[in-house]
Amino acid sequence: MAATDLFARRATLARSVRLLSEFRHEQSAPARFYGALAGDTAALVTELWRGLHGDDPTGRTVLDVGGGPGYFAAAFSHAGLRYVGVEPDPGEMHAAGPRPADATGSFVRASGMALPFADASVDICLSSNVAEHVPRPWQLGNEMLRVTKPGGLAVLSYTVWLGPFGGHEMGLTHYLGGQRAARRYTRRHGHPPKNNYGSSLFAVSAAAGLDWARHTGALVAAFPRYHPRWAWTSTALPGIREFLVSNLVLVLQPGLQNDCNVF
Predict the structure, then answer these.
(1) I need a labelling partner for 182 at 20 to 30 A (CA). Which of 93, 173, 198, 201 fits?
(2) What is the DSSP string of 156-214?
(3) Whole-prediction pTM value?
């Protein structure tokens, strides 16, 4: 069974529409938005593990790089995994107020580009929508592979700059250029964007992620995170994929020789 077979069955147009409808609540109702995203992410990771190993990851340790305030902790705890969250920003760690009671696990303040964990110490390493927020995203990726056990699972998912959501709260103005978009946002709202181009938001391409992942020798699959299965072929189209993929998932299995499926 291919790593993506189980998830592909759930990657329907209805799922895509449902997740897209939740995006509009990110600012006004973050618990609703991130709760839905966390549940979908836990299901994604579970199904990728099943595809690779043929069993459930129940009891396995998942290290979530950039885990934020605990929404993902609750989702992975419900899925039966031991959760460890890493977050460098104390403001983000407490952004949701008191951590939900069902958000069990361990939480560490640290940078994803220098993870304070031993080599081959976790079964699963996840980074969801973090790579575009760090100046050296592939150093983060290398750290994820370092701490993941051979034969385990690393999932790096990030927002592609030239996709429609590349500018985050700046909207489509990022097509005018990141710095110009940030200035326009500041003039309109009276304060700089949270995700400010050049300091907390960077232009990361699909091509760069695929090139890095292929060179690791650990790449198993790559596909658009929120697209229905019939749209996954956009990942294999140079140039066009930068605009169509929106959010790229890189699935990696360190320590083994892998056959890569780039859809």
Answers:
(1) 93
(2) EEEE-TTSTTTTGGGGGGGGG-HHHHHHHHHHHHSS--SS-BTTTB----HHHHHHHHH
(3) 0.90
